[in-house]
């Protein structure tokens, strides 16, 4: 499973496509364009009637919560999309990506409040297929050396783990944490959810089941634990679906404390953290 196509659609190759992006900027906490920026966008539309839009991405500055900025970035993308959709041709596999504030922030805050349109000009349309091929490296004909999941390094990426995990096996999603006794995901965990989204986005055949587990409860049939673990797994699915992952590709299930890694009661916080986990079951890839 590779990441090249995804990167291409959000502006991957500055050497190839650097001239083919257009940035529009917004005031703080606003998703509508100022008069000046609206004029700039209209001018771009007029000069790009023969171009083709590949994707639109939205960004925010660091002010506000992650949830708020995710929503604001999406509103900005939707606002721009509705202005251009009937005026400029859009690629059939067009995507929108809302980064919120989860991106490399510029020291100039105004530069972070933006939407970027990635597109091909008329001059490049005839070479569209060729350019996509250039963005995709040639197949490696070197015989692959099988690597088992257990042989992967500790710092292996989630995509590497999935690539070496068989259908029917599970992978622990590291550093996915929730506020105490709730299914609200803590902000520090969202970057790991973006990694899962990234992998799902770039591998459209991948289907998973999200499995929630809790710690500390010696009763595996406890209804509260089962409900909590189910709601936590569901929260992750809702995150993925909100960002455009098809709902049928993600199911969820809660196991409460019925499948602990360490015997309950746990001996220390390390064991409790290991039992209190989220896993993904590989259903198809």
Poorly predicted regions are 1-19, 133-142
CATH-defined fold name of the largest domain: 60s Ribosomal Protein L30, Chain: A
| Strand line-up of the largest beta sheet | 1-4-2-3
CATH architecture of the largest domain: 2-Layer Sandwich
Q: What percentage of the residues does DSSP assign to strands (E)?
A: 15-25%
Number of strands: 8
Categorize the overall geometry. Answer: elongated
3D structure, described in words:
The structure is a single chain. With 285 residues, this protein is an alpha/beta fold. The chain has two domains: 4-134, 60s Ribosomal Protein L30, Chain: A (2-Layer Sandwich); 153-284, OmpA-like domain (60s Ribosomal Protein L30, Chain: A), CATH 3.30.1330. It has helices at residues 4-9, 14-17, 35-47, 66-84, 109-112, 122-125, 128-134, 158-163, 190-202, 223-242, 269-275, and strands at 21-25, 52-59, 89-100, 114-120, 170-172, 207-212, 250-254, 278-284. A four-stranded mixed β-sheet has the order 1-4-2-3. Strands 5-8-6-7 form a four-stranded mixed β-sheet. The protein is elongated. The chain starts with a helix and ends with a strand.
């Amino acid at each position: 499973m590779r990441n090249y196509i995804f990167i291409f659609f959000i502006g991957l190759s500055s050497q190839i496509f650097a001239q083919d992006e257009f940035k529009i900027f917004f005031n703080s906490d606003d998703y509508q364009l100022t008069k000046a920026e609206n004029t700039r966008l209209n001018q771009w539309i007029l000069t790009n009637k023969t171009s083709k839009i590949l994707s639109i991405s939205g960004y925010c500055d660091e002010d506000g919560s992650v949830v708020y900025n995710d929503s604001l970035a999406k509103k900005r993308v939707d606002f721009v999309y509705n202005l251009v959709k009937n005026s400029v041709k859009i690629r059939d596999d067009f995507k929108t990506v809302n980064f919120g504030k989860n991106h490399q922030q510029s020291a100039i805050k105004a530069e972070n409040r933006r939407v970027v349109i990635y597109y091909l000009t008329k001059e490049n349309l005839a070479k569209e297929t060729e350019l996509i091929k250039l963005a995709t490296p040639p197949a490696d004909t070197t015989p692959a050396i099988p690597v088992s999941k257990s042989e992967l390094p500790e710092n292996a990426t989630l995509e590497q783990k999935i690539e070496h995990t068989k259908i029917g096996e599970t992978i622990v999603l590291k550093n996915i944490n929730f506020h105490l006794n709730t299914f609200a995901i803590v902000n520090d965990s969202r970057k790991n959810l973006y990694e899962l989204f990234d992998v799902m986005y770039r591998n459209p055949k991948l289907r998973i089941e999200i499995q929630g587990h809790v710690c500390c409860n010696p009763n595996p049939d406890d209804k509260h634990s089962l409900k909590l673990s189910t709601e936590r797994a569901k929260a992750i699915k809702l995150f993925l679906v909100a960002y455009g992952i098809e709902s049928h590709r993600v199911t969820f299930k809660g196991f409460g404390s019925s499948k602990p890694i360490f015997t309950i009661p746990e001996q220390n916080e390390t064991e409790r953290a290991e039992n209190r986990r989220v896993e993904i079951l590989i259903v198809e890839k």
